[in-house]
Amino acid sequence: VVDLMKSNAGMVIEISGHTDNQGAADYNLKLSESRAKSVVNYLVAAGVPAARLKFKGYGSSKPTASNDTEADRALNRRIEMVILKAN
Question: Is the pTM of this model over 0.85?
Fold first, then answer.
């Protein structure tokens, strides 16, 4: 991702954090935002300008799998990156 961002100087991305549905919704929202912010901090430390990075926590609102099993819950605890603007 660092190489991609460095080789595409006009690219802007959103880092989105997600959680499973275990625990309180407000806690999961804060946790997902913290996950996303950690990735942004890593990218900035690696030389990607912060102005080209957005982040948002979605909590458990956008699952990619059911939350019925531990394996499915693990799939929902994730970070995603979406290109908002290409060069």
Answer: yes
